[in-house]
Amino acid sequence: MVDFDALAATWDADPQKVGRARRTAAAIADQLPDLARRRVLDYGSGTGLLGFALRPMVASVTLADSSAGMLAELRRKIAASGLDEMTPLKLDLTSDPVPPERFDLICSLMALHHVPDTARLLRAFRDMLGSGGMISLADLDREDGSFHGADVDVHHGFDRAILAQQVAGAGFQAVHFETVLEIEREVAGVAKRYPVFLVTARAG
User: Fold this and answer.
1) What are the tens digits of pLDDT across the range 149-179?
2) Rounded CA gap, 204 and 188, in Å?
3) Order of all β-strands in the sheet with 172-187
4) pTM, to two decimals
5) pLDDT for 2 beyond 90
6) Could you tell me if 58 and 39 are in contact, meaning their C-beta atoms sit under 8 angstroms apart?
7) pLDDT: is 138 or 6 the higher one?
8) DSSP per residue, 17-85
9) How are beta strands 60-65 and 190-203 bridged, if at all?
């Protein structure tokens, strides 16, 4: 288990994480040119790197996370930014009921592989979207388990064909994948590259 509370205070100090969020936001904007009208939920938002990158392009951003440490850092950043229409939300869709709010876009960055029941999460996303709502979820392609290491209980990325079936099964249409970036890490002294996809789909 990754201790996100402990990582929160220094999360934004990693320029690779900041760059990753900006590139993902740009890719989302390329896929969805009508962002200006969309109410966005950034799920598994952490300190809000993706949500802050999207904020100038959208109507509002709700930033949802289950980590108290991440949410505390997020609230500090929102207060310091002076930006409006940014709302932190404590939410864990693996155990919490679907909230009553409805959104036009649900996005996430590197959150999906931390959720044990992917199909259940996708169904919850569908329930939270209004008519014509979209998902844009960025995460790892299938990898050998070296990204986090064998002692961390997460999905080792995703097979795109299998994930596409789960997305369609949750009630989404027009499922589209593209590679948006790669993450480079040193594993056992060797540099490894991990592709990251963006899957976009429309609520049916």
Assistant:
1) 877 889 999 999 999 999 999 999 999 999 9
2) 45
3) 86-90, 60-65, 39-43, 103-109, 129-140, 190-203, 172-187
4) 0.94
5) no
6) yes
7) 138
8) HHHHHHHHHHHHHHH-TTGGG-EEEEET-TTTHHHHHHGGGSSEEEEEES-HHHHHHHHHHHHHH--SS
9) unpaired
Q: What is the CA radius of gyration of the chain?
A: 16
The DSSP bridge partners found for residue 135 are 106, 201
The DSSP letter of residue 11 is G
DSSP category for residue 142: P
From the CB of residue 29, how many other CB atoms can be counted at a distance below 10 Å? 15
Burial (CB count <10 Å: 0-12, 13-18, 19+), residue 136: buried
Dist. CA 183–CA 15, nearest whole Å: 12
CATH 3.40.50.150 matches 4-203: yes
Q: What span, in angstroms and rounded, lies between the C-alpha atoms of 116 and 132?
A: 27
40 beta partners: 61, 105
Q: How far is CA 199 from CA 46, 71, 114, in A?
A: 20, 26, 16
Per-residue pLDDT averaged across 32-56, rounded? 95
Q: What is the domain partition of the chain in residue ranges?
A: 4-203
d(CA 181, CA 123): 26
Q: Which pLDDT band, with edges at 50, 70 and 90, does 11 fall under?
A: confident
